[in-house]
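Worked problem 6 (solution included).
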Amino acid sequence: MAGMDWKNSPPGKIVHLDILGKPQIEFPRHALDRMSERGVTEEEVLDAILKPDGRGLPTRKGRHRVRKQRNSRIAVDVVYETLPDRVRVITIITVETGLPPVSGRGYRGKRGRR
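Solution. The predicted structure is:
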């Protein structure tokens, strides 16, 4: 969200927990809404930040985007920033990373058509 005004946004949640050398993590209302929408738990967000399967994904300057594979087809991306006194989660994204499983008869290439 371009130009999000954090000072005037509805309250979110602060969790007092040592993470990335900071004493707390902030979940603004936007992040909590995206987590609820996408069925992502607080534990999944923390796991993605602390033990990501992928780092350095594209995001705005000054932010970090990490990926944690949820299963063979779905990953959870977490965008966050580190502030002097806390880690602030910006948003949560679920990403389809694999192809659906092939079952039964399907496409067999140009020469293998039925």
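Discussion: The chain has a mean pLDDT of 85.
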